[in-house]
Each structure stands twice: as structure tokens, then as C-alpha cells.
Amino acid sequence: MRYVSLFVVCVLLAGCASVLDSPRSLLGVSTRDLELRRSHAVYKTLSCSATDAFDAAEAFAMANKYLVFRKDRAGLFLVLMHIPGAVDTTEVGVFLVPLDEGRSVRIEVSSRSSFARRVVAQTLFADFADDCQVR
Fold this sequence. Notes:
5 strands, 5 helices, alpha+beta, Alpha-D-Glucose-1,6-Bisphosphate, Chain A, domain 4
């Protein structure tokens, strides 16, 4: 019983994020690495709502035959894989940040692979018009 109590105290002191992220890491669905790399993300600001940009980004991924490994409409992000020229398991995060009270959105593209990040960002931003319509 003493060890169980010690374990519970350790878990509580570790914080909720690490407790919740550990199972996600084991399952391979954690976005922690991609979120940490957002400081090095390539980004573009567009004049549309975050939900319109999310729909357009999802359509872009399907049109380019990227695998949408994970998507979270509430969290406003997509995780893409199967980027041409990169290892199939390379993850690229597409994060959407609402700006100006929802009238515009910043799209951030991050990845551990600078090559995959650059490929997705270049094709994504070339395909998007400023009003979030896929060309």
C-alpha cells in the first residue's frame, strides 16, 4: 500500500500534461515534438476564418495525396505523413492560429525534418489564395 501511495504522489507531482502525453507517445500519436518545433515553423497569414482554413488544409492534403495521420478540428491542427522525398513516417504539423477576432488565420507548418517542412509549406502556400481557397 505504501508503494501505491508513493506512485500516486509521483504521478501528481509530475503534472497532468506528462501523464496524458506518455500514452500518446507510446501509441505514436503525440504532437508534442511538432508543437515544440513551432518556433521554427514556416507560416503565412490569410484572410479567412480558422474553420475555413482547416477545411482547405484538409482538402489540400487529400489533393496532394498526403496521409492525414491525425486531425483535430477543435485544436485546429493536422498531422500529415507520406511527404514525397521524405521517409513515409515523417510527420509534418499544420497548425492554425486565429487572429483579429477570427477574421484571419496564421497557418504554421512545423516538422522535425526541415526538408518535409519546406516541401509542405511551399506547396500549401502556393496552392492557397489569400481567402483560403485552394487553387
